Amino acid sequence: MADKTIRTIGVLTSGGDAPGMNAAIRAVVRTALGKGLKVRGIRKGYQGLMNEEIIDLSARDVSDIIERGGTILQTARCKEMRTEEGQQKAAAICKKYGIDGLVVIGGDGSFAGAQKLANLGINTIGLPGTIDLDIACTEYTIGFDTAVNTAMEAIDKVRDTSTSHERCSIIEVMGRDAGYLALWCGIANGAEKILMPEEHDFDEAAIIKDIQESRKRGKKNYIIINAEGIGDSINMAKRIEEATGMETRATVLGHMQRGGSPTCKDRVYASIMGSKAVDLLLEGKSNRVVGYKHGEYIDFDIDEALGMHKSIPQYQYDIAKQLAL
Ligand code: ADP
Ligand code: F6P
Fold it and tell me: For residue 4, what pLDDT band results from cuts at 50, 70 and 90?
């Protein structure tokens, strides 16, 4: 049974970075210090924990970071944490540094690590940090709003040149396993087609036919938003150009979507979630994930959260298709 008395809180960021993680770190640090606790920052996620890259954090250490993208604590992926031996080592290091409450900012994989640590007596709280929006227990994840706005602005620029040249443009957005960035950009940028990993059996011949018909209807460009999980944008562009005779270009937006100054929404939501993580620990809670649903900040048991499933809302996808008329 974990000791629920919290004196020192540790905080780490894990998995892919996301804009707004710094706002969450700042909120954890300042809320905890304000409530008389000590705060330790763990660099480079679970890998840094294994390597004991642990520093004390003061209120001034998190000055001037709310507006910065990335994560001041840096992040990593750590194979060792997936093993039982690694998890025991991580728990022992937390105990060695007096970390009795740990805030883990990351995605489902990072939460699985937090769950293992909770089972080993470390009180843990997960905060949803990913640009992919693919965490089932929450309608909001730290970083999605910034990433989708970054992608949207870039796609607007591609559209300008696409229309001028009457071209087809395939724009690849991030999302190896999730199509939320693609879906939102598809709607926000008025794309003709949205290709998502969840709908992986798309019909390229049907797209080619649609491009030909849309030319007849007077469309001056044809925008395809393609998620990273489908990929192959460059070859797809060659095939489409050959089949339709319409000049086709591919643009892979890549990691620019993960960086940049967080939007107001990401700063505010991440700040509230960071504070809530500390409050939950002080209420004696552990093995929980903070989420946002129906206008409220809530928390779920990690086991329950990891068991939830999220799928692309069909109604939204149907609307995107309808609006591409
Ligand atoms: P995300 O947190 O964004 O889903 P990953 O899936 O890469 O990103 O997970 C981040 C890190 O969390 C991994 O590198 C690993 O250290 C840890 N992790 C992932 N899955 C597990 C697991 N099943 N058990 C323990 N730790 C895990
Ligand atoms: O953080 C999420 C994400 O950006 C996914 O959309 C993408 O598939 C993955 O991370 C790429 O991660 P990396 O290039 O850091 O391995």
Answer: confident
Ligand 2 centroid–CA 18 distance in Å is 10
Atom of ligand 2 nearest to the CA of 257: 4
Q: What are the two backbone dihedrals, phi and then psi, of residue 2, each rounded to the nearest 5 degrees?
A: -70, 140
149-173: burial string, b at 16+ Cβ within 10 Å, e else: bbbbebbeebbeebeeeebbbbbbb
25 appears as a binding residue in the annotation: no
Q: What is the distance between the alpha carbons of residues 100 and 65, in angstroms, rounded to a whole number?
A: 25
Whether pTM exceeds 0.85: yes
Query: Does the annotation list 30 as a binding residue?
Result: yes
Q: 185-221 as b/e, with b when 16 or more CB fall inside 10 Å?
A: bbbbbebbbbbbbbeeeeeeeebbebbeebbeeebeb
Ligand 2 centroid from CA 132, angstroms: 8
